[in-house]
Amino acid sequence: MNYNELSIPEATRLQQELRKEVITTPFKGKVQYVAGADISFNKFSTTVYAGIVLLHFPSLQPVGYSLVKKEVTFPYVPGFLAFREVPALLDAWQQLPQKPDVLVVDGHGIAHPRRMGIASHFGVLANQVTIGSAKKKLFGLYEEPGPAKGNHSPLTDKQGEVIGTVYRSKQNVKPIFISPGHLIDVAGSLDLVSQCVQRYRLPEPTRLAHNAVNQFRLGTLPQGYTPA
DNA sequence: GCGACAG
DNA sequence: ATCTTGTCGC
After folding, report:
1. What is the CATH number of the domain that holds A67?
2. In which band, very low, low, confident or very high, does the pLDDT at A228 lie, cut at 50, 70 and 90?
3. Cβ-based neighbour number of residue A200 at 10 Å
4. Domain enclosing residue A123, as ranges
C-alpha cells in the first residue's frame, strides 16, 4: 500500500488496526547487535534520506551503514510521522545484510495517542524488536526527572498507565523520551537505551544514524551498504 | 474555542 | 527536520 495516497482519517484507521499487533512483553535474549534508524531531508523537498547504522553491543562500535534515498509526499503531521518515514526505513532495513537484535528508532513507540508511534509501526511491519527514543514529548504526562545523569520518571497516559520513561541521559541536559516500540517492555527499553548512552545526550545508535543520514544527504557517504 | 503538537 | 553565530557553563 502507498502511504503517500492516504488521507489522515485513513491513516488513523490503519494505526487503529496495527495497534492490535503491538506486543510489549519483556525481551528475553542476549543483545549482540543494536542499530539506530533516522531520516534526513532538505526543507521543502520531497526527497528523504533514510539510514540504519548497525553497532556491536555493548561495545557500541559501528559495524556498517545502510543508506537509501526515497521520494515522499505524505506531509509531516504530529502523530503520523510513520507515514512519512517508515517506507524509506523499510528499504534501508531490507538492504541491511545483518539484522540487529534491537533497533532504536528516532521518535516514539507506544508513547503516542493511539499507541502507534513510528517505532511501533516499523516494529510490527518488520516483525522486529524496536524501541522509540525521542528528543521531545508527543503524548503523555510526567514529572520532570532529577538533574543528575540516570534520573528518570514514568511517562503515563491519563489513566495512569505507564507508556514510557523520561530519562536524563546526561547531567544538565533536557531529558529524552524512551518507549517500547514492539516486542519489548518499558523497563527493558530503558535498560537497553541507557546502556547505549556514552558521551552525548542521545544514545549512540540514533546519534550515529543521524550523523550518517546527514552525511549521506550532503554527499559525504555513498548510497547502499557500507562496512564501517 | 484554546493549547499541544515526534521528525 | 534544516539553517546558523555567538555565547554560556561544565
Report:
1. 3.30.2170.10
2. confident
3. 11
4. 3-227
Determine the length of chain A: 228
Per-residue pLDDT, averaged over A62-68, amounts to 98
CA of A96 to C1' of C10 (A): 39
User: Which amino acid makes up residue A27?
Assistant: F
**Cβ < 7 Å from strand B, A residues 35-94:** 38-39, 76, 78-82
pLDDT value at A47 more than 90:
yes
Hey, what's the torsion of the CAs at A118, A120, A121, A125, to 10 degrees?
140
Amino acid found at A121: H
Helix (H, G, I), strand (E, B) or coil at A189: helix
Q: Which residues pair with A85 in a beta bridge?
A: none
